[in-house]
């Protein structure tokens, strides 16, 4: 029962929805607050062993020899593996699972142990003798791009892993036609996802025909495919179980080496094996954001119209280019906010002797926006324009067809700008605040899913028991965002029952229907449409039977408040209406004996890109202490066009978390790297916000009722953080009177700017040298 | 390595367990008593998800606490907060106020919140911020967590609980 977008009629806000739009507490709340929720590390299988991984201490070295014999001899040790045990097992195309001959980053997997106890496994690591010949390493973007830099891989001259260049329209012509062209540089650091639940995998590969893996993930199929390919299995021979997922923040999109190693150890030892990262190991094996350099260039006409946009981005890929998608994602994004004549994107991935990189919360868009939006506000200031006005006159409207081919059926961007300007009293504050107070505004967009493969399918099934209770089977993981609750609400709305009547079965690829998972902001939109289709299928089956009994057409029946009745008649009319449970009984115990089961799926009909985009605008207000350089975020006013708020309570939770995380990335978070080693591998030294740092957050939900979204909904899972990061960056820049070319904006970096500005004011010198904020 | 037999009173039940100096209180709760409600996070005292209560109802980081030091002491874990088969007010408030998202840190956050309420039944904003400063919740931004605690604080001070 494929859901067709054209079947989803736009619905206005007062269309009699009874469940959608309700402030619905989580359906799994009881389990989560009572300690009953089972996470991967809570699962203990009979005979289970504990695995630990020996990692390279060097950023680059030749492995002279590996001797595992002493470790194997330790009582309790059941398996020790190194590349010699699986020389052809690849983690990715050019990347052996366990280091082969060379190590390319500190933390690279060299060997692994499975033992009856985690302490024994840890002790065994010390008994593996590895001799290294240390080689010169390139451990930063700067070093990797030097002309005489050592080359990491023979296939990558100049350490360039990949490049991507894309022109939309005629950028050269548009820049030439501009009255003003502004260029700014920006940098973002290595950042870690700091998931609440540390990386963990429990593998049972004792039957060589079936690999069972319990692990938190953002989506089972990518894990199944990668593991199946590595071990020569069919996808269905790999089962991924992911009941509860302790946060993701883009950090669980793809299987990591520890998943493969747990499987290999389990196969070798003939027992289930659990590998759980330790607190500091988490910071060594992670795949968060890499060091990134940006050059932004914008051409405008005198009246403030943007003619041409350009971004040139250089990414530290780490030792292997695992997440190529990050490289090309900025190209379309540059097209989604403004009506422009032309866009140019140039990006490159550079190899360094560091852990392979991926993304942090907000993907590439958050960190890019922290620089890009400062740059665009800089452009506005150069024009003598209020940045709010600059964003507004250039902002796209509904129906806009972008240069990259994206179509925006619903778009509340201008409404978002107007609302935050009004609610934050922007016009009373911008340029009028006391010293060291700052205010910043910016905008952003995010796609609701998108086709990056042959399909972007989510499927759903549900069955109705004879007591009227519905079991919904969905593969969308609930990492905290509340997807399972929202899917229950969608099914309940369609069937005319209550969310409490829905039992969610999720997170087991042997049971739940296909779903790519929770990334690219596709959950509410894509899986939501699939669940809606499945529920409509079930309702259709029930309606046919009940309509027959009442002598009416199925389309005349109304389903709501746990009742089924004929439209225009009384919901409780005796003999002419049924409770939902009675109706199910009529179907089950009727001539046909029908057990009601619904099925549905959704796949965007577009060849590429997304069907729907959400938009947002935010205003951040900050105070900078000129003596210490510390920043206090006072208030964030956030407007987000999310189509429709299916569950406003969960939407607020999403906004809270993204404001907090966005502020954290702009002000605090940075992996301090030295020679390829991380200097701050703990949650005390890697600064994260605590309770006393949270700002006031004012939410403004703009409902544009998207024609393709389930009940009009679009994403709200990542759009807001992209906007927060830039709003906070702009507010701090406004407070110190200078665009800040680097995040995080730590006290030390801000003090350097403040002192420089004071000195410049005192000596009366004008432009002066560009202040360098890079050395801390 | 020091080894010994200790008696722990967890959520009112006495348990005799053999431990060594390598075992933390968290190892005993999760590994030996199979009380999986208390989660293991960083194991270095920086994230707070392993928070439990000592006999005085104060928050303790179980990942940092050697088990041998807990002989004959009382401990409350998340599993011990329910009263007569009903969720404690703070647990219900966490559901009602959407103070839970991924839920991994939730047991530690709730135990920290309850420790604040044990000390000050009507906590001030600073009491709440200070009491929760030791736990990191990456999902909620602590905003709705604070709302839930504030609600229970007001509810208790009104004499309704």
Describe the overall structure.
- The complex is a heterodimer of chains A (776) and B (161).
- Chain A is α+β, with helices and mostly antiparallel strands and 776 residues long.
- Chain A contains 20 helices and 30 strands.
- The longest helix of chain A has 28 residues, at 523-550.
- Chain B is built from five helices and five strands, in the order E-E-H-E-E-E-H-H-H-H.
- Chain B is globular.
- The N and C termini of chain B lie far apart (48 Å).
Give the low-pLDDT segments of chain B.
none
Lateral arrangement of strands in the main beta sheet of chain B: 2-1-5
How far is the N terminus from the C terminus of chain A? 58 Å
Distance between the termini of chain B: 48 Å
How much helix, percentage-wise, in residues of chain B? 25-40%
Q: What does the largest sheet of chain B look like?
A: 3 strands, mixed
Quaternary class: heterodimer
How many extended strands of chain B? 5
Key features?
heterodimer; A: 776 residues; alpha+beta; seven-stranded mixed beta sheet; five-stranded mixed beta sheet; 20 helices; 30 strands; globular; disordered C terminus; B: 161 residues; three-stranded mixed beta sheet; two-stranded antiparallel sheet; 5 helices; 33% helix; 16% strand
């Amino acid at each position: 029962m494929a859901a067709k977008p054209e079947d989803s009629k736009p619905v206005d806000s007062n269309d009699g929805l009874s469940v959608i739009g309700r402030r619905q507490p989580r359906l799994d709340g009881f389990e989560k607050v009572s300690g009953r929720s089972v996470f991967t590390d809570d699962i203990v299988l009979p005979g289970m062993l504990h695995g630990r991984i020996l990692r390279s201490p060097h950023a680059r070295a030749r492995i002279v020899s590996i001797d595992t014999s002493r470790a194997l001899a330790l009582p309790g040790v059941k398996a020790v593996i190194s590349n010699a045990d699986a020389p052809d097992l690849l983690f990715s195309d050019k990347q052996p699972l366990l280091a082969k001959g060379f190590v390319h980053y500190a933390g690279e997997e060299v060997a692994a142990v499975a033992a009856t106890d985690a302490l024994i496994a840890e002790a065994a690591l010390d008994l593996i003798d590895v001799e290294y010949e240390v080689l010169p390493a390139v451990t930063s973007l700067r070093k990797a791009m030097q002309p005489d830099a050592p080359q990491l891989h023979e296939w990558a001259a100049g350490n360039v892993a990949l490049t991507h260049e894309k022109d939309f329209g005629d950028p050269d012509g548009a820049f030439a036609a501009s009255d003003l062209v502004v260029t700014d540089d920006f940098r973002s650091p290595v950042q870690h996802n700091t998931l609440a639940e540390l990386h963990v995998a429990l593998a049972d590969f004792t039957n060589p025909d079936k690999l069972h893996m319990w692990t938190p993930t953002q989506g089972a199929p990518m894990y199944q495919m990668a593991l199946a390919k590595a071990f020569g299995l069919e996808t269905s021979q790999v089962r991924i179980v992911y009941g509860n997922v302790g946060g993701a923040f883009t950090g669980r999109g793809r299987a990591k080496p520890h998943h493969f190693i747990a499987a290999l150890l389990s196969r070798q030892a003939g027992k289930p094996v659990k590998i759980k990262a330790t607190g500091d190991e988490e910071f060594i094996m992670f795949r968060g954001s890499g060091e990134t350099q940006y050059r932004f260039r914008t051409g405008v006409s005198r009246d403030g119209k943007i003619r041409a946009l350009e971004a040139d981005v250089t990414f530290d890929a780490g030792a292997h280019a695992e997440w190529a998608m990050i490289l090309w994602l900025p190209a379309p994004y540059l097209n989604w906010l403004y009506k422009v004549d032309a866009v140019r994107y140039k990006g490159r991935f550079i190899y360094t002797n560091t852990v392979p990189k991926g993304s942090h919360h907000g993907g590439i868009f958050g960190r890019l926006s922290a620089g890009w939006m400062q740059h665009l506000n800089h452009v506005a200031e150069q024009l003598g324009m209020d940045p709010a006005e600059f964003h507004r006159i250039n902002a796209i409207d509904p129906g806009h067809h972008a240069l990259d081919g994206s179509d925006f059926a619903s778009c509340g961007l201008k409404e978002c700008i107007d609302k935050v300007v009004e609610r934050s009293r922007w016009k009373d504050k911008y340029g009028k605040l006391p010293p060291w107070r700052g205010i910043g505004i910016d905008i952003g967009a995010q796609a609701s899913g998108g086709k990056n493969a042959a399909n972007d399918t989510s499927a759903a099934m549900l069955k109705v028991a004879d007591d009227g209770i519905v079991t919904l089977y969905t593969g969308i993981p609930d990492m905290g965002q509340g997807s399972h609750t929202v899917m229950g609400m969608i099914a309940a709305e369609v069937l005319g029952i209550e969310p409490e009547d829905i039992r969610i079965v999720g997170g087991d690829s042997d049971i739940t229907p296909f779903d790519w998972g929770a990334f690219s902001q596709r959950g509410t939109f894509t899986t939501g449409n699939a669940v809606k289709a499945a529920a409509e299928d079930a309702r259709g089956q029930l309606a046919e039977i009940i309509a027959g009994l009442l002598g009416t057409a199925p389309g005349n029946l109304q389903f709501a408040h746990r009742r089924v009745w004929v439209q225009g008649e009384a919901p409780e009319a005796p003999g002419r209406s049924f409770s939902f449970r009675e109706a199910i009984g009529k179907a089950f115990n009727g001539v046909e004996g029908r057990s009601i089961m619904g099925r549905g799926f959704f796949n965007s009909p577009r060849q590429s890109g997304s069907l729907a985009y959400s938009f947002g605008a935010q205003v951040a207000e900050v105070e900078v202490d000129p003596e210490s350089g510390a920043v206090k975020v006072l208030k964030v006013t956030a407007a987000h066009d999310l189509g429709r708020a299916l569950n406003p309570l969960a939407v607020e939770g999403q906004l809270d978390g993204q404001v907090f995380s966005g502020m954290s990335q702009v002000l605090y978070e940075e992996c301090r790297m030295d020679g390829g080693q991380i200097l701050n591998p703990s949650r005390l030294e890697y600064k994260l916000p605590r309770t006393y740092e949270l700002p006031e957050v004012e939410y403004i939900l703009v409902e544009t009722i998207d024609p393709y979204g389930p009940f009009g909904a679009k994403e709200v899972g990542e759009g807001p953080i992209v906007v927060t990061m830039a709003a906070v960056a702009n507010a701090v820049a406004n407070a110190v009177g200078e665009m800040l070319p680097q995040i995080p904006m730590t006290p030390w970096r801000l003090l350097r700017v403040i002192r420089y500005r004071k000195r410049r004011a005192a000596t009366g010198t004008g432009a002066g040298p560009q202040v360098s904020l890079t050395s801390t | 390595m020091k080894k010994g037999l200790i008696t722990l009173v967890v959520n009112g039940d006495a348990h005799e367990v053999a431990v060594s100096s390598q075992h933390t209180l968290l190892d005993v709760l999760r590994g030996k008593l199979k009380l999986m409600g208390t989660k293991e996070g960083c194991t270095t005292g920086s994230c707070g998800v392993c928070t439990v209560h000592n006999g005085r109802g104060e928050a303790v980081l179980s990942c940092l606490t050697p088990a041998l030091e807990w002989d004959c002491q009382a401990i409350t874990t998340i599993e011990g907060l329910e009263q007569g088969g009903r969720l404690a007010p703070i647990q219900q408030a966490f559901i009602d106020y959407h103070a839970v998202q991924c839920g991994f840190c939730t047991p530690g956050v709730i135990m920290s919140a309850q420790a604040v309420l044990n000390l000050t039944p009507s906590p001030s904003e600073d009491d709440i911020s200070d009491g929760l400063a030791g736990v990191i919740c990456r999902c909620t931004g602590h905003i709705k967590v604070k709302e839930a605690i504030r609600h229970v604080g007001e509810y208790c001070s009104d004499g309704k609980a």
